[in-house]
Structures are given as C-alpha cells and as structure tokens.
Write a structure and sequence with these properties.
Helix content is 34%, strand content 21%. The chain is an alpha+beta fold. The strands form 2 sheets. A two-stranded parallel ribbon has the order 1-2. The longest helix is centred in the last third of the chain and has 13 residues.
C-alpha cells in the first residue's frame, strides 16, 4: 500500500491527517502534480488496485467504505500468481 498527497492538498494538513489516523503505509508528496497528471487524478480520494503482475485491477474515485475496501483487498489477495 502506498499513499500520495496531491499537490492541491495542504502538506501540513496531510501530515496531521497521517498522524491522527495512524497511517502506517508510506505516503509521498506529489509536489509538482506530475503523478496526478499521469494517473488522471481529478479528486481525492482516488484508489488504484494493482494485481500481483502489476496490471490495473480496479480504480475507485471517491471514498470507499471499509467493507468495499476489504472485499477488493480480499479479491486481490485471493488471485493466483502468474
């Protein structure tokens, strides 16, 4: 799991959010907006689910419920490696 803080979000607020929610995965900053442009990020949150082979499994624009997120993770973990 990897997080990216988009350029239009306030970096200090993002750091406070990470600390307050005890986020343990790495979170980087897209200070130039290049990541957002390449992945066509138009709003947050945007979630990309990547298969074991590195291909795109799914994309979600907007918030997911914990149940939706867990179902997607379970589906990804249940896939056989190629």
């Amino acid at each position: 799991m990897l997080g990216v803080n988009v350029m239009w979000d306030n970096e200090a607020d993002a750091r406070k959010f990470i600390e307050a929610h005890k986020i343990l995965y790495p979170v980087g900053r897209d200070s130039t907006g290049e990541i957002g442009r390449q992945y066509q990020i138009e709003g947050t949150p945007t979630t990309f689910l990547i298969n074991r082979d590195g291909s795109l499994y799914g994309r979600s624009r907007g918030a997911m419920t914990e149940d939706e997120f867990q179902k997607n993770i379970d589906a990804l973990l249940g896939q056989k490696a190629k």
